[in-house]
């Protein structure tokens, strides 16, 4: 079962967004166009536009309006990836070389700026002031999250709360806003768009926890980047936090550093996998998914509601 | 005569904006706050907020609304400075160490992102959709300009048109938009806010040409950064373009590179100063100022109009 089967009735509209994304990054400036295209063509699940469209289906759905919101959210997401790769010194993203690896940090920074600016431009089709307030608030949070993430690296004394706040800003917020803005653009009542915000938020939390689990349990082939990379780079994810509770492991984890020999790292990962860290992480992810599904209960039945539900369930089971 | 004497009747409101700028960058995240404060406290002319206020004075003036636009424009300007310093590898800005020098490129990138996000947040107080369209369009242009600027470095075969397009994006556009958005927030007619846009555009062009002249004629003490730095870094400014027309100089200019000995550079600058490059650059700057003043003719008399005129005249004579 593939993710996109869950919303196949949106196929034409999603193709429309893909086409628009290509137009969005078009530019006379060759360097900018090449760098943006490089990232765009690496693909991605386009899950944010999908949430935008599905949420809009709960209200007045006009693809000519709503596609702009979908494009905007995907561009913001892509811009944040480009800037993240500068920080992480990442060489690979979605199985391709990153912009910073292919060009340099400077080009990556400005390409991110440009994609972000284009996103804002697309958003101006929505005239409701509340949409712009929601978006700008969440972007501020996103940026705070990005810099907090630098500060939190290799900080092994952090709490579960630190982790949850970090993934909220890093992932859950933009998915929540995708759902909410789709609904706002569809002119639904605040009751509905706030409910969809919460749905997106819970789904986003579950999604990121799953991502953090997969970084331990999956393979380089499936991830498009080396497995175990999070810990190596000092990202203290949920499985790491649980593993830190094992006295034997805690000391070894606290000594992780970027230039650690591959073999030592592989052994540490194997040992972490033998604790209950993954199981406990999955349980928390499942709790978030349950909350997400609960939010959907308040919506009238529709094909969009069914898709949202199926996507949430899919995320709970995904293996890549 | 100091610039701020020309709009002393706005003193209280400008202090209000300064206070708000400090609030704007406040954050629980220490690193972010320190980095932003570092730049904010380096000062600056805050000329963009001044234009916002003066333009708003041509319409309905409510400081509680308009100050947010002023703060937004200054934050966008500051964000672009922070990102520019990453590109330029600049160590000094406004006589202080840059964020990238004090911390690193990563912190500078995210601090810029954060300031920019805060700017958007401030702008949401303006509900007219046209304001957001104007702003997002100009930010896209700004970003294209930033990356084009990298490509244009040490390209000594570029034309006057390349230069003018570059300074339009780099400087004139944001000043034009400051004037226009102040006026839009003041709810004036399109005729007036478009006129103020053109005024700001012409003033901005003159301002940047003057800046590019001062980089040759001023001292490190007055500039807050080493004189002649533009050419050394491969920025082909207007005086350089005119100097390139002198066959004797052209060849020497084309051999400029970043690691050039200080003495060779000093000699080259002295020789450029002996051509008519500065005089011809000043003439073009004056032509833009004349156009700016001409736009003001269409406005009814007011204290704000007088200030706008005085600022334009001041820019034509400024020596720092």
UniProtKB/TrEMBL annotation, chains A, B:
Keywords: Magnesium, Metal-binding, Transferase. Pfam families: polyprenyl_synt. Its cofactor is Mg(2+). Belongs to the FPP/GGPP synthase family. PANTHER family: ALL TRANS-POLYPRENYL-DIPHOSPHATE SYNTHASE PDSS1, GERANYLGERANYL PYROPHOSPHATE SYNTHASE. NCBIfam families: GerC3_HepT (TIGR02748). This is Heptaprenyl diphosphate synthase component II. It comes from Jeotgalibacillus marinus.
């Amino acid at each position: 079962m593939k993710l996109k089967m869950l919303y196949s009735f949106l196929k034409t509209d999603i193709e429309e967004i893909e086409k628009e994304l290509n137009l969005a990054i078009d530019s006379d400036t060759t360097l900018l166009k090449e760098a943006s295209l490089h990232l765009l063509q690496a693909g991605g699940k386009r899950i944010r536009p999908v949430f935008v469209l599905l949420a809009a289906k709960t209200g007045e759905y006009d693809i000519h309006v709503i596609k702009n919101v979908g494009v905007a959210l995907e561009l913001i997401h892509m811009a944040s990836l480009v800037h993240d790769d500068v920080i992480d010194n990442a060489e690979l993203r979605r199985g391709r070389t990153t912009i910073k690896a292919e060009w340099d940090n400077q080009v990556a920074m400005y390409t991110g700026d440009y994609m972000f600016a284009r996103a804002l431009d697309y958003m101006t089709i929505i005239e409701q002031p509340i949409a712009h307030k929601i978006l700008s608030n969440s972007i501020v949070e996103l940026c705070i999250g990005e810099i907090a993430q630098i500060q939190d690296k290799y900080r092994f004394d952090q709490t579960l709360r630190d982790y949850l706040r970090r993934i909220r800003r890093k992932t859950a917020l933009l998915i929540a806003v995708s759902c909410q803005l789709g609904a706002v653009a569809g002119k639904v009542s605040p009751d509905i768009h706030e409910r969809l915000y919460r749905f997106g938020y819970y789904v986003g939390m579950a999604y990121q926890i799953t991502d953090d689990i997969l970084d331990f349990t999956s393979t380089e082939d499936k991830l498009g980047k080396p497995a175990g990379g999070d810990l190596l780079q000092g990202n203290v994810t949920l499985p790491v936090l649980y593993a830190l509770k094992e006295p034997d492991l805690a000391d070894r984890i606290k000594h992780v550093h970027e230039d650690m020999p591959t073999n030592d790292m592989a052994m540490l990962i194997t040992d972490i996998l033998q604790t209950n860290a993954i199981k406990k992480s999955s349980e928390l992810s499942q709790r978030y998914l349950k909350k997400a599904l609960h939010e959907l209960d308040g919506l009238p039945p529709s094909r969009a509601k069914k898709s949202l539900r199926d996507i949430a369930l899919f995320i709970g089971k995904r293996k890549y």
